[in-house]
Design goal:
Layout lengths: L1 E7 L3 E9 L2 E7 L9 H8 L8 E5 L4 E3 L2 E5 L11 H4 L6
Parallel strand pairs: 3-4, 4-6
Antiparallel strand pairs: 1-2, 2-3, 5-6
């Protein structure tokens, strides 16, 4: 996947937008306690023109989901990586 920065007047600034296959995933990284506050991310998700299915917020909190947003602990950033075809193949023992 490719990472992009998004900043548009009236919409707000989002840390990253990950492009994976045909899907765009906005990603925020929050270090403070108020990681549920993300106006720009909410603006993007509510814009029907973008047709975004999900977003990710990395924070000091725990794993949780609220609507289209998945909150993940900061340490899980290391698992946010490029997906390869080998990751999708299931090998079975003969």
């Amino acid at each position: 996947f490719a990472l992009y920065y998004y900043d548009k007047k009236g919409m707000g600034e989002v840390d990253f937008v990950a492009a994976q296959h045909t899907e765009l995933i906005p990603v925020e990284v929050k270090s403070g306690e108020d990681y549920h506050a993300h106006r720009a991310l909410d603006n993007l998700l509510s814009n029907e023109e973008f047709a975004l299915n999900r977003a990710i917020v990395f924070s000091r909190g725990n794993v949780e989901t609220a609507g289209k947003i998945t909150y993940l602990p900061l340490y899980m950033i290391m698992f946010f990586k490029k997906e390869t075809m080998l990751d999708k193949i299931r090998f079975s023992e003969v």
